[in-house]
Fold each of these.
Amino acid sequence: MKTAEPIKVSQEMYDRLDAQARARGVSIEKALEFILQEFDKIREREFIESLRAEGLLVSTPTASPNTPRNFKPVPITGEPLSQTIIEDRE
């Protein structure tokens, strides 16, 4: 892993990060990693909401609660169904 430049934060911010990390039993680096992942999730939700607001997205697909966790689709050979439909319409 490449060594990065240190960042400067106030003592108050450092103490807050340290307290959060200790409460979770992780290092400050792991706590920051978690925070960044949460930011990514928020950014994704905001993006989806902006698409909905513009009318570009009606709903987001979700997994069925009945779908087994180890579900793997069966590979199908041959041309795609969309191609068959296009050829039938011609």
Amino acid sequence: MSETESAENSDSRAKVAAIFRALVGDRVVRLDASHHNADAIATIARALSPIPGDRRSHDIAFHLSDWASDAAFIVAVQLFPERFTSAEIARGVNRFLIHAPNHVAAAAALSCHPVEDIFEVGALRGGSDEN
């Protein structure tokens, strides 16, 4: 990643942080990509399993929590699309698509919910054959 791309990513992340800071105050740090949200992971794991320390529930919770910054970007664009440039949106969508789907698929698999290609776009082969 070039210095320019890094600065542009920082700019869009700062915009996301500003949007969520206005909505949730200091809790915005929980959405930062560098933040490991142990509280959320533990809470989700406890909700999924009454057995303390259940590894599967912890792993599901981790996979549902690790991409919170990517989800925050998508939600921020949904709420305030006018605050982002086309280039920022393209980069943010790309980051989301690289990071989030495999975590969701892992959580689904650990939860015994099969991942299927219900839209018939080649999702399980790595993408669509259409352009």
Amino acid sequence: MFRKSLFALLLIPAFVNCKKAGGGDVARTEAEPADRAAPTATMAERGAGADKGVAMGSTGASGGEMARHGEKDDKSDVAAATPTTPPVQGAAGVRAGEWDDNANYRDYVKWLQESSRSVARLDVRDRQFIVVKDSKGKPVPNCKITIASNNTETSLITMASGRALWFPHAYGASNTATATALCGESKVSAKLAGQLDTITQLVLQNERALPARRTIDLAFVLDTTGSMSEEIDAVKQTIRMVAEKLSTDQTDVRIGLVEYKDRGDDVVTKAYPFSSDLAGFSRSVSGLAASGGGDLPEDMQKGVQEALEKLAWRTDAVSRMVVVIADAPPHLDYQDEKTFADSAKLAASKGIKLFTVSASGMDDTGQLVMRQMAQFTGASNMFVLRGGAGPQSVGGGDPKSSCGGTQEQYASGKLDRLILNKVRQELAAVDADPTRIAGIGKDESSKPCNERIVMAY
């Protein structure tokens, strides 16, 4: 397929390298050294936003954690891109930025309301958080939560953080509901308050039981049509990096992949099963190449559906992640397959996060679809940068900083390293405080830089 025409799209802020207008760094995320096998979360609080105690079965709000990732060089995983040093394309690899719509929920809801109405909306009003903790206050991943409301039941699975996102309107539920957590032989229930940004804690009487090795299932859903050659190479590099940096005695990572094209191509989807032999898996996908495609939309919805339903996900993995990478919107006119909204709900019910990466040329329809899938499952949206900040920076629009007023400084980095850092963040979340949630009560982007909270690896 020809490279999709370049659009100056939506104003999508990227995670910023927080600087005051005067210059100096206020907060910076440090990357974990490559030889550290199993990272734990060290939460560094900057200024306001201290934790607030939340009793069992009660609700409350706390400060947030905000991660900003960037390019790794010889010294650090983080590098800032500034107007005088724009990210460049070429030998350095595919460059990308990141934006978390859950950390900036109010901005996201406003954007949804103001965007084109031609794309279906997941109704995410009145979001709430359900947290499952063990007797020592540790988050409990993979706990089944049943929410009863309006004579219906909805099932969710807690993520690595021990949290589940609850959007009552998306499920046709009322704001009055009861959540029941069932983890092994332990069971606990509590009423949900039904108010925006409340946290309901379900505290088990016993300690959590986790596998001896921290386990991750990571799947890629990859558009392999003709304009995606650079992004395909970035995925191959990501797989090699995960194999080198995260395959240790303390960490067990499996990788799978689903490539997709469009109806009319020789192969619409092809699945590569999960494998813990990452070097072998890297060899098995080494032949992936960009080809095919026709009209602008591709069959993304089928690719996501195949990944969720046909890959053999481990129920005991502490984290399950999908990374969807595409430069074209999905066909929304195919009536015989599950929609992106169906897949987002299915992922939440399986405890799977849908991270998304909008490659250059992505139009507003694709942005609406990909950001909704990510936000609904508690994940973030990444976007490929072309030519630095400004109208030519396609895939993510024109990222602007909320730190320093008119400055256009934002964190960016190689796409492969951004994805690797998402895996590290999931591993770290298993030992972090599950009630420290970015954007509770107030968007991170609207806080002064020195009042934000970052996660250090």
